[in-house]
Amino acid sequence: MPEPMLAIAGVNTHIGQYHILQGVDFEVPRGGLTMLLGRNGAGKTTCLRTIMGLWRASAGSIRVDGHDITRAATPDVAQLGVAYVPENMGIFAGLTVEENLRLAARAGEPDASRLEWIWRLFPAMKTFWHGLAGNLSGGQKQMLAIARAIVEPRRLLLVDEPTKGLAPAIIANMVEAFRELKRTDTTMLVVEQNFHFARSLGDTVAVMDSGRIVHTGRMDALAADAALQTRLLGLSLDAHQ
Amino acid sequence: MKKDWTPLALVPVIALVALPLVGSAPTWVTLTVAGLAMGMMIFMMASGLTLVFGLMDVLNFAHGVFISVGAYGAATVLTRMSRQMEAEGLASDLSAMIPAVLAAIALAAFLGWFFERVLIRPVYGDHLKQILITMGGLIVFEQLIHVVWGPDIIPLPRPGTITGSFIVGEAAIERYRVAAVVVGLAVFAAMWLVLNRTRIGLLVRAGVENPEMVESLGYRIRRLFVGVFVAGSGLAGLGGAMWAMYQEQVNAQMGAQVLVMIFIVVIIGGLGSVGGCFLGALLVGLLANYTGYLAPKLALGSNILLMVLVLLWRPRGLYPIGKA
Ligand SMILES: Nc1ncnc2c1ncn2[C@@H]1O[C@H](COP(=O)(O)OP(=O)(O)OP(=O)(O)O)[C@@H](O)[C@H]1O
Ligand SMILES: [Mg+2]
């Protein structure tokens, strides 16, 4: 069994006086895509932010590729090769598409062939290369946020609700992009509400509820078990389209 | 978020509205140049403050101290070098002015570094504490200025080359004001180049918008912030030195006196926006000079009125930064 890319054990996170994560344990296998599911307010975003060092874990341990990052500052986590696409996308609206990507390329400039690859994944990024990111449509902003995370090869990609607010056609486009990313052996942890999207991409799954992990396993097993879905996610597959 | 030019029209609009009110064209030219010069100096004093607020959400009322200390630094050098300046000519004047300005920048920048380490760092993220501790710092350092330089107002010798006026038609234009406009434009151009043409500038622009995301991309925003804070303090020192030469005197409270105007400019411009700060400074400078001539009693009130009107039009300032 190779060491997992991400190993989270007994993680607790407090935000102010609130005890949000109450002992989170799960692993993200190397090279796979793990879906983190759960109802609204379950603590999924808090979990990603804790991994990034944007919230500080008050107990437990977080390891990325064997490195302990539990107490690491956010820039150190990033420099270890963890890329983060936050729920609000966090694009720099006053910067151009090009500047957004240049900033994310720590080498100073994006690598030319990698850029070609990103443009093939998201052609809008090429069309609006010199346009302000703030003028992009919602779907294009999400694409920019993902493009920014993969402008250089990273060990681990954390993506928070990539389909939030997107039209079905754009979601299909997004599925294709993630399929392509999976072919590159990037390890990913993706938070999703859209079960249809989650099912078509996830290799493994972790489900949160009230600040804890309540289920882990293979995605296809969860996809095949309607009763389990209802119990864990509170919604049937039909209700999720 | 198109490139938005409308606010830029405010400068010519205010100037043109003032023309018939002032009545005489030569007086209007004099006032306009004076207003632009004042605006440039306010811009230098305010630009650091707006970036500091944008990057780290830090409210720094002690910014006035950097202005005063810069003025004292320049005054000290100029007084020592007054013999140099007795010789006629640009070269001898510059040989006194350049060291004076460098002293002002260095002293204010050093003080800024000290402030950031000792006063600001412990109160990140807490506005109330920031206001209290930087207000306290302002008062303490004003007193320290009295200890070092004495309590009296120091008259400031102004070099010959930038004293007196040009006469253009019937309008008298003070040389010093022209010099202030030139220096202000140069500072603005330099800031623009750094912000738009360098990687550090890219980081600062991104950081003002969303500091957390900049950290998530692997950059240490704290280090960037210290750099901006020190540079902003140095600029405040430069602005203070120029302001002091304009008024031909130095006192410990001069920074605190312009602080209200500086905050107005930062708010009008949009917190964190250097371009907005520049525009806001010009508007405030012009308005202060026109109303100072037309209705002196309204001079301070006019700037507050300007702020209210701007905020009614654009609640987050002329050029709001898209905070995520
Ligand atoms: N800054 C904050 N201050 C206080 N409480 C917070 C803060 N951020 C999140 N919480 C609380 O933590 C809990 C988990 O929030 P979190 O955003 O992690 O949930 P989530 O699973 O991402 O939900 P959603 O699916 O709606 O995005 C919620 O109860 C929320 O109210
Ligand atoms: Mg969330």
Architecture overview:
- The complex is a heterodimer of chains A (241) and B (324).
- Helix content of chain A is 35%, strand content 27%.
- Chain A has 241 residues and is of the alpha/beta class.
- Chain A has two domains: 1-81 and 158-241, Rossmann fold (3-Layer(aba) Sandwich), CATH 3.40.50; 91-153, no CATH class.
- Chain A has a six-stranded mixed beta sheet with strand order 6-7-8-3-9-10, sandwiched between helices. A four-stranded antiparallel beta sheet of chain A has the order 2-1-4-5, covered by helices on one side.
- In chain A, helix 3 (97-104) packs parallel to helix 6.
- The longest helix of chain A is centred in the last third of the chain and has 16 residues, at 168-183.
- Chain A is globular, with a radius of gyration of 17 Å.
- The termini of chain A are far apart.
- The model of chain A is unreliable at 236-241 (pLDDT under 50).
- With 324 residues, chain B is mainly α.
- Chain B has one domain (6-313): ABC transporter involved in vitamin B12 uptake, BtuC (Orthogonal Bundle).
- Helices cover 74% and strands 4% of the residues of chain B.
- Chain B has helices spanning 10-22, 25-56, 63-80, 82-86, 90-120, 127-149, 175-197, 199-209, 211-216, 221-247, 254-269, 274-294, 299-313, and strands at 154-155, 165-168, 171-174, 249-250.
- A two-stranded antiparallel ribbon of chain B has the order 1-4. In chain B, strands 2-3 form a two-stranded antiparallel ribbon.
- The mean pLDDT of chain B is 91.
- Chains A and B meet through helix 2 and helix 3 of A and helix 8 and helix 9 of B.
- Adenosine-5'-triphosphate binds at residues 15-16, 18, 20, 38, 40-46, 87 of chain A.
